[in-house]
Amino acid sequence: MTKVDIISGFLGAGKTTFIKQLIEQVFTGEKLVLIENEFGEIGIDGGFLKDAGIEITEMNSGCICCTLVGDFSKALQKVLEEYKPDRVLIEPSGVGKLSDIVKAIEDVKKDAEIEISGRITVVDGKKAVLYLKNFGEFFEDQVKHASTIVISRTQMMSGEKIEECVHILREENAEAAIISTPWDELSGEAVCRALDHGAEIEEFLQNHSEHEGECGCGHHHEHEGECGCGHHHHGHHHHHADEIFTSWGKETAHKYTDEELDFLLKALSETEGYGTILRSKGIIPMADGTWKQFDLVPEEYEVREGKADYTGRVCVIGTDLKEEELLKLFHI
Ligand SMILES: Nc1nc2c(ncn2[C@@H]2O[C@H](COP(=O)(O)OP(=O)(O)OP(=O)(O)O)[C@@H](O)[C@H]2O)c(=O)[nH]1
C-alpha cells in the first residue's frame, strides 16, 4: 500500500519549504516520490530534493482541475508502477483546489493500492485574512478540505495575530489539526502528532466532501448542465485558475546589478504599478559573474546565491499584470 500525502497551499505559502522539513524530519528512510504541479512557476527548488534521492515528477502544463485530472491520474499511476514508492507527496499548484486533487486521487484508487494519508494545507499566517477575502474561492477550498493545516511565518507574528489566524481557519474547518508553532522550533515528533490527528479525521472529511454537492472542478457555470466532470450543476459560479490568475514567465540574459535587483524586487513587492503581484521567482545572472535566486510574495522577498543556469529565468504570478511594464522592469 502506497501512502499519498497532498501538500496544498496558496501561492508562496511555504509548501516547498514545509515539504523539505517533512522529508528531513518525518518521512526519513522512506522511498519517496514528489509530484509537483506548477502554475507557470519555475521549479527552482529541485536541487535539494534530487540530492536527497527523491524522484520528482513535474506537471507544468497547467493547473490540475477537470481538464488535467486525466493527466494527473496517469502521472500518479506511472510513478506507482515505475518506482513502487512507500509514499507519494503531491504538491499542487498554489491556485489549485484541494478538493479537485482529492477527487483525482480517488479515481486512481479504484485500480491502485494507495490510500490518502494526509491532506496538508500550508497557510501564510500573515496573509490569511487578505487571501480569504480576495481569493476565497481557491483559498477556502484548500482550508476546508485539509486534515492538517500548517501556518507558516508564525515566528514573524504576535501571539494575538496567530490566535486571530487560528480563529478564522477554525471557522472554515472545525476538525483539522492546526500547527501554529514556528517551523524552526517544530520537532519531527510534533509534526507526526499533528499528522496522526489529521489521519484520524481523514475518514470524516471523505464522507463530508461526498455530500457537498459541488463539483470542485473549477468551471464557470452559468447554466445548469454537465461540465464534463460528470457532475450536475445548478448555476454555481466556479472559476478556472487561469480565468483569474496570470502567469508571466521569461528567459533573460541581462546581467543585473545589485541595485537593479533591489529596485525591481521593491517595485514588485511594495507597489501596485505592475498589477497585483502574488508571487515571483527567478534565477538570474549578475553583473559580477555570480547568479542569484529570488523568491517574492507581497511585502516580502528573499535573495540567495544561486547556481549558474543555461539562461536566466523569471516568473511573475498575479492578477491584472502589466506585461509591458514588467518587460521594462526586468530589462527584457
Ligand atoms: N521566514 C520564513 N519564511 C518562509 C516560511 N515559509 C516560507 N517562507 C519563505 O517564503 C517563500 C516561499 O516559500 P516556498 O516554500 O517556496 O512556497 P511555496 O508554497 O512552495 O510557493 P509556490 O512556489 O508559489 O508554490 C520562500 O522565500 C521561503 O523561504 C516561514 O515559515 N518562515
From TrEMBL:
GO cellular component, as recorded: cytoplasm
Molecular function in Gene Ontology: hydrolase activity; nucleotide binding
CDD domains in UniProt: CobW-like
Signal peptide feature range: none
Domain CobW/HypB/UreG nucleotide-binding: 4-179
Keywords of this entry: Chaperone, Hydrolase, Nucleotide-binding
Residues annotated as domain CobW C-terminal: 261-330
Top-rank taxon: Bacteria
Reactions it catalyzes: GTP + H2O = GDP + phosphate + H(+)
Entry-linked InterPro entries: CobW-likC_sf, CobW-like_C, CobW/HypB/UreG_nucleotide-bd, P-loop_NTPase, Zinc-reg_GTPase_activator
Pfam family of the protein (one): CobW_C
Entry's family note: Belongs to the SIMIBI class G3E GTPase family. ZNG1 subfamily.
Protein name as catalogued: GTP-binding protein
